[in-house]
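Hey team,

Filing this mostly as a record. A colleague (T.K.) asked me to run one chain through the structure pipeline before their review meeting, and I want the input and output archived in the tracker in case anyone asks later how it was produced. No errors, nothing strange. Just documentation.

Input sequence:
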Amino acid sequence: MAMPVRPGLPAAKRRQHVVGDFVVDPHGERPRKGWRGLDPASAVAVTACVSFYLWRNVILAAAHLRGGASDFTNYYLAARAVLAGRSPFSVPNFDYPALMAFLVMPIAGLSEPAARVTWFVFGHLCLLAAAGLVWRRLGGGTTALVAIAAVWTFGGTVAENLVLGQVNPLLLVLLAGSWAAAWHARPRAATLIGGAAAVKLWPIVLLAKEALLGRWRAVTAGVIAAAALITLPWAFVAGLLPAPHAPLHASYWMGTPAPLNDSIPAVVLRLLEPPARGRPLPDNWVVGNDPGRLQLPASHAVAGVASGTVALVVGILLIGRCVRRQAPGRDDEPVVSAALVALALASAPIAWYHYQLLNFPGIAILVARWMGRRRFAALALLACMVVAGTWASSFLLAPYVARYGWTAANPAWLWFATSVTLVADLALFAALLRELGAWGPAHGTVSRD
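Output structure:
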């Protein structure tokens, strides 16, 4: 029986109907937001998440800014070196693309404590902006807001990223921005990915989505952006500043067996140099986070890089198979991007535990979708995955070191603690692939530039 419609309304208006938090036009390309506000239960949940976030990631985290080593120190010293007319690579542990030094230059004139606080605030702004962009990309609404609030609050690497002064919050907002722009400006979205690749090389892998969908203009735009942002700062350093003109320990990019490195190459490197039961850990495990002290055999480095390359190629082929079988619609494209992020982190020679922050958008997608479908058992498994992927360093490795020191006194605990984050990352990749396969072309067709 046909539903009666009010006379006088345009045909497009007659076809619209409300689904959940949105006004949907089944014949249109993009849902129009019709959010009706938070219900009491959702308001309580979001308020609890915000309160916990402020307590752990602002109040407690800020207390740790007063001292101790941080990754930000390397960025800061590199930026000050450029201001003083020296190469940023004269800083021994600055093993990043030159662009990173130029990004920190606006605050390099401050004292290091003041600059560190400024960068801490900047990190929070990036996290907030990324949350807003992901919420927008998911269409807005209560379910998406609750999902994002929960993931951003209970993900275990937020405080670590902020206290260490890591660049991952900046990468997160660039990647989230590429998702938000993908509706109508895919070359622009790919340019943001290129910018992220100029800060940390691995995000260039995310252009594989555009290649799989045949959007070669977007791929070209992303590659050009990455090449320009990597080359131009380096050309300035090489042409106008004294040597060195490259990282002093560029071989460090080939991987490290350090316990906090959570990737397939890292596990391979640890297996190639296993500790003896009850003995101290191998030197490369202990000093593996220091580019100047790591002494990685060339054969081990090649094996680690090869394992990551194989994993990356196989993963992209699996994603490509899903894309060919069921062309992803507009709402499914972020699932492809999120799967590529999880794959890149699992395959990279270096993927420190705090890099798992970049998986937050993918986790939020699954939470929002599974909440809408009331898949509570799947959500419980996902919660376990998040704990394993983002809290292992705090709940497993730190207690191990506190009890046994840097030894192999308890090999089962040691290997579990140093591998569980990778297992969680691969499980997330598999869940995203499953989610991609569960949705067909009814959500839209592939748009090609």
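Quick notes for T.K.: The longest strand covers residues 17-19. DSSP finds 18 helices and three strands in the chain.
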